[in-house]
Specification:
Layout lengths: L10 H7 L5 H19 L10 E4 L13 E4 L3 E8 L14 H18 L7 E9 L3 H14 L7 E7 L9 E9 L1
Parallel strand pairs: 4-5
Antiparallel strand pairs: 1-2, 3-6, 4-6
Helix pairs in contact: 3-4
Length: about 180
């Protein structure tokens, strides 16, 4: 049996599956998922020259640390799996330390982007899942986020309080969407 390389199966997915994944199964799964996402997103035509416009609605309060909307005219869309606080060996970084886990999750998100030929500047949407969400964690998350993202071009974002994530040790998971020219 041939196994999928770690780059094809996220540590999060491997933990959920808890069984070896055959390369052929992963390839078919990714092809089907990619095709469905492409159809749902309307990205079947090859698009070039991505341009993102960050929008703040004039009749809403200014958003604290995100954009109300990001309008993308053209480009290659990259869907990012949830990044957690695992290192390259799958070990949890910052066990019990939210700030350390948020930093590692952003580092992992940056690695996902790089592997897809993108950078944090290409992010148009982020979803944050935080266990035990409270005001202190929001402030810590914003502080860490600001070290990784351009404050003048923040992606549209959603922050969700979660009861638990894939492993009990995880305190944060960040997933995103990027558009590459």
């Amino acid at each position: 049996m041939r196994y999928a390389p770690k780059s094809m199966v996220s540590m999060h997915d491997a933990y959920l599956l808890q069984t070896p994944v055959q390369l052929g199964q992963v390839t078919r799964m990714h092809m089907k998922t990619s095709a469905i996402l492409a159809v749902l997103s309307g990205v079947l035509p090859a698009l070039a020259g991505a341009q993102a416009h960050y929008v703040t609605a004039p009749n809403l309060a200014p958003p604290p640390g995100y954009s109300h909307a990001v309008v993308v005219e053209h480009g290659k869309i990259v869907y990012l799996s949830g990044a957690v606080s695992a290192d390259a060996h799958g070990d949890v970084v910052g066990r019990g330390d939210f700030r350390a886990q948020a930093t590692q999750a952003f580092e992992n998100l940056r690695a996902e982007l790089s592997a897809a030929g993108a950078s944090t500047a290409n992010l148009v949407k982020l979803n944050y899942f935080v266990v035990g969400l409270d005001h202190d964690k929001v402030l810590a998350l914003r502080d860490v986020r600001d070290k990784f993202l351009d404050r003048d071009h923040l992606p549209a974002s959603t922050l969700i309080g979660a009861v638990a994530l894939a492993r009990d040790e995880y305190l944060i998971e960040i997933e995103g969407v990027a558009v590459v020219p």
